[in-house]
């Protein structure tokens, strides 16, 4: 079993991310520890967050106060809900968070079921709980849980390979061909995309792009593909490499086959409603381009906007690292097309956004407290009116690095991207 621990200043983001899984029937809440009960047994994100508020008020100096932990058994392990609950409780106790409020979510959106735990690392007195030797202690707890529950042990090889498969190309480090090869040879095994434009949007996160070339060979017109390294600014940073250098899977025929398979897979993909909801929430909460990208980045979704020389946005792509899917904006819906975002960001024309998101679920708690029922909570309203935080803007990629060997990397990716959210009132200039 592999545990991943993320820290951030975004409690609402962590809760909303998991609750969206529940609302899309790709997850459920297993239990909560020290979570205030409601009369109905239903919860909104705001209501869940109330249980953590006293702890955060007691310590306003700890910036990264939110914990987003995931426990990931081997795909071959079969773990019941009761076992997951026992494992979560034991893990939190051993890591020093047993007396903290926390919520345990089970995710079922991939082949391997796993759990997420959202908590805070400051206690009721405002003291920050020590994270000394946290990684080593976490690994020791995981080994003990593997022995206790008969789980398949995670090997050192599994941990080490996390960083080997995907890394952004660094042209200054040399051996650019090998760096590109490690990306090009593996991306089709992980991500679904339907066009060369979507493929290039994904490659851009790794400082790579492609270009078609054509010419006449033995009396026939032939087309080929070049892979070109980029620098951090997205500018060409070296000579191009023929696709044939990276094997048949890197060429146009193999890519076109991948597009066709992806089209069939994505036709009714369960991640689509979650991505649409996340994008809609971000559009509702801010009209600032960088804040929009940041907010989605915190949920494991990259935004790649393509512009011409005059700055006109002619394409926008959303890359969801949780489901490993790539979506041109118009594939999600006409309200997410490039024209909409061009008007929004370049011409200050606010889009008409329909709908709202209600995030509620039942939960078992270990607390007899109660809060009165309230009207259904709309996440849009919270994001529009939440306290505003100033923070450094992160770039479109950052540390979103997928993992190898079928690892569900969404927990680490999302947790690493949780940063302070900067919300602005709609229409504010």
TrEMBL record:
In Pfam terms, one family for this protein is Relaxase
**Record InterPro entries:** Endonuclease_MobA/VirD2
Q: Where is the composition biased (Basic residues)?
A: 417-429
On the tree of life, the source organism's domain of life is Bacteria
Q: What is this protein called?
A: Conjugal transfer protein MobB
Q: Where is the MobA/VirD2-like nuclease domain?
A: 38-151
Q: Where is this region: Disordered?
A: 408-429
Please report the organism this UniProt entry assigns to the protein: Flavobacterium artemisiae
């Amino acid at each position: 079993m592999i545990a991943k621990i993320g820290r951030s200043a975004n409690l609402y983001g962590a809760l909303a991310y998991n609750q969206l899984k529940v609302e899309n029937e790709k997850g459920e809440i297993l239990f909560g520890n020290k979570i205030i009960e409601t009369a109905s047994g239903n919860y909104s994100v705001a209501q869940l967050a109330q249980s953590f508020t006293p702890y955060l008020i007691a310590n306003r100096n700890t910036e990264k106060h939110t914990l987003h932990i995931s426990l990931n058994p081997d795909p071959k392990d079969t773990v019941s809900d009761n076992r997951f609950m026992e494992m979560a409780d034991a893990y939190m106790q051993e890591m020093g968070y047993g007396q903290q409020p926390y919520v345990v979510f089970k995710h079922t959106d991939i082949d391997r079921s796993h759990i997420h735990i959202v908590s805070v690392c400051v206690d009721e007195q405002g003291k920050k709980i020590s994270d000394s030797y946290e990684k080593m202690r976490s690994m020791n707890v995981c080994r003990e849980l593997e022995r206790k529950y008969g789980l398949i042990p995670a090997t050192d090889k599994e941990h080490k390979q996390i960083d080997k498969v995907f890394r952004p190309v660094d042209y200054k480090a040399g051996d650019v061909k090998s760096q590109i090869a490690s990306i090009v040879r593996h991306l089709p095994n992980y991500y679904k995309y339907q066009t060369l434009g979507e493929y290039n949007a994904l490659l851009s996160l790794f400082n790579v792009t492609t270009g078609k070339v054509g010419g006449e060979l033995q009396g026939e017109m032939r087309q080929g593909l070049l892979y070109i390294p980029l620098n951090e600014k997205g500018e060409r940073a070296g000579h191009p490499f023929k696709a044939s250098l990276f094997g048949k899977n890197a060429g146009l025929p193999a890519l076109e086959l991948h597009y066709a398979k992806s089209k069939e897979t994505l036709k009714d993909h369960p991640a689509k409603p979650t991505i649409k909801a996340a994008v809609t929430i971000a559009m509702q909460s801010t009209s600032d381009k960088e804040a929009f990208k940041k907010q989605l980045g915190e949920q494991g979704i990259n935004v790649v906007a393509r512009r011409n020389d005059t700055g006109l946005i002619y394409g926008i792509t959303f890359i969801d690292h949780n489901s490993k899917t790539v979506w041109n904006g118009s594939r999600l819906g006409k309200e997410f097309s490039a024209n909409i975002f061009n008007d929004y960001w370049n011409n200050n024309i606010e889009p008409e956004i329909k709908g709202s998101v209600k995030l509620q679920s039942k939960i078992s708690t270990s607390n007899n407290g109660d809060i009165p029922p309230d009207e259904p909570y709309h996440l849009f309203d919270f994001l529009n009116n939440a306290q505003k935080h100033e923070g450094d803007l992160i770039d479109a990629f950052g540390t979103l690095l997928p993992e190898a060997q079928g690892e569900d990397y969404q927990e680490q990716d999302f947790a690493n991207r949780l940063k302070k959210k900067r919300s602005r009132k709609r229409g504010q200039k």
